[in-house]
Amino acid sequence: MSDGSSIEWTDATWNPVRGCTKISPGCKHCYAETFAERWRGIPGHPYEQGFNLRLVPEKLAEPLSWSRSRMIFVNSMSDQFHEKVPVAFIKAVFEVMELADWHIYQVLTKRANRLRKLTHRFARSLVEQKHVWLGVSVEDRKYGLPRIDALRESRASVRFLSIEPLLEDLGRIDLTGIDWVIVGGESGPGARPMKAEWVYSIRDQCQDASVPFFFKQWGGIRKKETGRALSGRTYDEFPKIVRSPLPKREERMRRARVIEKQVQGILSRVSMKIGTQKQRVCT
Ligand code: SF4
User: Fold this and answer.
1) Is residue 56 a contact partner of residue 277, using CB atoms and an 8 Å limit?
2) Which residue has the CA at smallest separation from atom 6 of ligand 1?
3) Count of domains in the chain?
4) Ligand 1 mean position to 85 CA, how many Å?
5) Which ligand 1 atom lies nearest to the CA of residue 111?
6) CA within 20 to 30 Å of 201's CA: 11, 46, 50, 237, which one?
7) pLDDT of residue 268
8) Is the Cβ–Cβ distance between 180 and 214 less than 8 Å?
9) Beta pairing, strands 17-18 & 54-55
10) What is the pLDDT of residues 174-215, one digit of tens each?
């Protein structure tokens, strides 16, 4: 887990999965890939294998050791529902979130169909937790809007949209069952432009539907210069935050032992070739 984050809508990141593969136009300038590839081949670096997909089971229990409550972006350096991430590993991530329930978790995916499928396969109590927010990325009409439907059909307590990078006018969006919307433009070299009217349209639809709206950034090559003001103000709205009180240390340690046992079980069951290393994981 990494405390502190430059991402405006979260406090920290937790990455028991690292690396990913591109799936749609929103991935073109993936920040995670750019970051990870910088370290490829550096011996001992967490991203020695660059952006190759791999599991990091030893990171699973981390939120249990984090005593101060955080809003945590889960797998910010990957996509938890990537087709190569084993089902049992995804389930273990949900189990950790259930045990470390004094945090808020933000789980974001572009693999919305797998999200829908697995949330119906897992126990309802595991996926419908008020402190676990499930979201999909939306960048355009073709790839993004069907993800919203898949999210709506997923089991979740809190559903959110990360509309970033916004690449075109989305038109009318069905916000039924959606609890939070984030909008942002692409940033960095080669950033694709975002028109103000596309943003206003989404903001107005959120206001009409009483959905909290968070405007992350205009983006562009130098995002600090373009900022995040919209109509002369910032939009920092969040859904209702519900989390449990921090348990005593002994209880936290007991829960950590539960997860450690599970990790051992995961490691002993199945092996999976990840990058150049052979690791023991589960299916
Ligand atoms: S799905 Fe997300 S993490 Fe994966 S390549 Fe696309 S933008 Fe990057």
Assistant:
1) no
2) 27
3) 1
4) 14
5) 1
6) 11
7) 66
8) yes
9) antiparallel
10) 999 999 999 999 999 999 999 999 999 999 999 999 999 999
